[in-house]
UniProtKB/TrEMBL annotation:
PROSITE patterns assigned: BULB_LECTIN, EGF_3, PAN, PROTEIN_KINASE_DOM, PROTEIN_KINASE_ST
Keyword hit for Iron-sulfur: no
TM annotation in the entry: 439-462
UniProt subcellular location: Cell membrane
One of the protein's GO biological processes: recognition of pollen
Ranges of residues in domain Apple: 340-421
Protein name listed in UniProt: Receptor-like serine/threonine-protein kinase
Coiled coil: none
Membrane topology category: Single-pass type I membrane protein
All copies of domain Protein kinase, residue ranges: 507-728
Main location: membrane
Any one GO cellular component localisation term in the record: plasma membrane
Species of provenance: Carya illinoinensis
Domain of life where this protein originates: Eukaryota
Amino acid sequence: MVLSPFLILWYVWLSSVSPPSTAATVSDRLTQNQVLEDGQTLVSSGQRFELGFFSRGNSSHRYLGIWYKNITLTVVWVANRNKYISGQSGSLSMGSNGFSLLLNNSEKLWSVNTTRVLESPILQLLDNGNLVLKEENNPDLEGYVWQSFDDITDTLLPGMKLGWNLKTGLYRNMTSWLSADDPSAGDYTFSLDSPETPQLVLIKGTQKKYRWGPWDGVRFSGSNELRSNPVFTPMFNSSREEVYYTFEVIDQESLLSRFVVTQDGWIQYLTWSKSSNEWVAMVTLQRDSCDRYETCGPYGNCYSDGPKCNCLKGFTPKSPEDWSRIIWSGGCVRRWELECENGDGFVKYGGMKLPDYSHLVESRNLSLEICEAECLRNCSCMAFTLIDIHGSGGDCVMWFGDLVDMKHFPSGGDDLYIRMAKKELESIADARRNKRVRVIVTVVICVATGMLLCGVISWCTIRIRKAKRRAACLNHPHRYLMEETQEEDLELALFNLKTVLAATDEFSFRNKIGQGGFGPVYKGVLPSKQEIAVKRLSRDSGQGLREFKNEVILISKLQHRNLVKLLGCCVHGDERMLIYEYLPNKSLDYFLFDQTRKKLLAWKKRFGIILGIARGLLYLHQDSRLRIIHRDLKASNILLDSEMNPKISDFGLARIFGADQTQEMTKRVMGTYGYMSPEYAMSGHFSVKSDVFSFGVLVLEVISGKKNWGFWHPDHDLNLIGHVKIQS
């Protein structure tokens, strides 16, 4: 069954695996004194999983493991992950008190032994992927002497438990493979870090990299991904005997799925697509750089939808100089020191990822008021909240010491009550009163008779002017355009609206080929059979008459093989349209950032595209009659013709420079973040260098196939430019 997942972030291709050669199936079990040789396999009763010996890539190292049957070999469990077998000399032997992985039928590499002798032991591979040792006539789960679900490698299957068995002391966690061809324990471990106050953590060595928690009765705080959805149901259990996380697949019979921690440190939920024969990543826990552990330091709040780090209300940066340089790790400090029982109180923050609780204390079944009083009574208590960790209806949770690893969500999240000094509370109250006063004064002024009268007069004047201009445009569109462009010789055709409507089938949806920054783009065919592209400027777009005139004047005077050709324009009432030559291969980003289509861009072709863009840019800056600064050079504004030759398009933001002019300044900064030079984005200064900066970003994207804006790496939060800089 092909799913339409609502959480798909990207596709994950698994490495090719060397399968066992022509393996002979024994059955789904081994009985006493039976031996499983290399080349033989056990297959679960439902033909879902297979147990046998395997190797990865070109390696001769052999391992005993479990994988999915009848799909691309995907290993979900490895017995001897840290002790490989050289060659095909391994065997699995079944005895009366356990089983052993033997080398040359003698040397023991790995084994499971029981403290008692079993009368009729069997080792059975179940259809859920669990390998169990049990008495043959005892079907009870509690009768399992041993099970592979208690010895997790890098994969969590449905029904596996991640966490603690407090009765036996068993601790289950996931550890990544060392590499794609080596299942040895790798750098990353994913686990519940405490049975008393459980939260999910990803650790590299001994250092926390990511954290989600604690459980609040619906999800782990800080992770909206691990909550019920149409594909799987997450479950958390906390009792005196067990504390664990697990999940169930809603369509268990037809859907193959698993959680995995990759060797690069990604936590992903994968499902098998039968149509494309590949694993698809439906959920990735690390959504953005705010998920990294302690990104903003103590009392810093991370925002994924705005300026990255902000101090909590009542706090200021510990080092303003570092924060001005976007170094946030030092965090924030209080403006007013706490005075304990002398007027301290709490400020509520909503939509929060709760802080790390290394020093957390909890008291069950307390009301919010009692929880607040308990925290206020302890001078070391910095914050509290009320959540349902253990399913008891509400746990009072308190924090002691600095609050770290917090994040703000635009929607969802938990409430957190943070302790503030009396002076800070008074300052907040004064600010609220002043805000109310300002609102009242503003309302009074707005409804004053004079302001209302001026507003009516202005509105009437504007309406009259617009009506006159619309009438002039309808009666004489060409003359209207010439007047608006100050009698410039346009040197291009003027199309009437009837011709454009006929060419595009009245702007039908099936003819829509793109969406630009200022409106949609449609494909059309003229009566002469010439194919055209019509850029229809939306009425509420950011491109007004100024940008439209600008684009018409500029492109009508430019002729170069690497610039898009403007055939004409159409003006009718509020409608403004530009008619371009049609380029069948769409824009560069259509190929560059798609995992499948990017393969069509060989290195020679990429070099040709870079060279073509450079030629077009050189023409604009140096060789044309006018020196043109484009100001919006990006992948989506590079169109490709039938031979994949690049053409620079979209001159709505371009500016003309004089012969001796080197730079200009504007208060109307427009363009695309990630491509704008720092001086243009921050102060409005632009020049030839601005386009050169955008070209440099474009070159990096063409070479790497990655977007500069939105680039993520597990070891840092730099964009593509910063990543390339530290790698050079």
